Amino acid sequence: PYSELTFPVSSTVALLGSFRKVQECYLPAPTQLLKEINRRIIASSTGYVYSSRRERWVATVIEKELHRFSLVYPAPELSPPHEV
Prior knowledge:
Blueprint: E1 4-8, E2 14-18, H1 31-44, H2 56-63
Antiparallel strand pairs: 1-2
């Protein structure tokens, strides 16, 4: 139930899928979402990574051995309980 799919279509379009019930639509992504999509794609690469600009963060993501992905559609049931 917490699976998500990220598929780059072009440099300006990405397909984002989820098993959660979310509205089907086409919309501009906020900067934070774009960063997460790019991070997922880079971290999942098995061959080469190409970028239009030389960015240090790209190399940092490539060099990491363990990646933690943030859900695009958060699951409140996965959050730790709040202390009262």
